[in-house]
Design a protein that fits this description.
Helix content is about 75%, strand content about 0%. It has about 180 residues and is mostly helical. It has one domain.
Amino acid sequence: MKQFLQKKVVWKTLAFWGVFMLFYFLYKYFPNGVFAIFCGITESCFQHFKAGFFSYLCVNLIEYGVNRRKISNRDSFIFSRMTATIILPWIIFLLWYIAPALYGPMPNNTYEIVYANIITILVGLLTVILETGWETAVFKKPQKTVLIILFLVSIMLYIIFTYQLPWADVFVEPDWR
């Protein structure tokens, strides 16, 4: 069992990184309305959060398709992955901003690209580790309801803010005039 979990962690982490990279470049090379829904369309942090969310969702759907006959508890499978998918963009936020907080701006694009890939892999790894623990949780109706609402709100915000940015930026002080 332990070896299976280790393989799952490595496989899913690398799958997340690969799908994230696919979603990162897909819109750049084939810009269209369909890809804009789930790919990052700019270099903003928000678009990276969106791409991370949809990348992990995609990997979860693939995992479900591959393992659907072996899944003994569908509720735990679905809601542990839903929780992980909702939380993943916040893990991106927490890890990505370590360097800006401690170091400041990257000296050049090469360092930033290497840092971004390391962070993306770490995000996948930490999310899979958390998800593995959540698989054993019992999700009751109130928790399921909250997760479904947060999941749907996440999708709504990622799509709406792709086409219309919010009036309030995370790091910019609002202009109250």
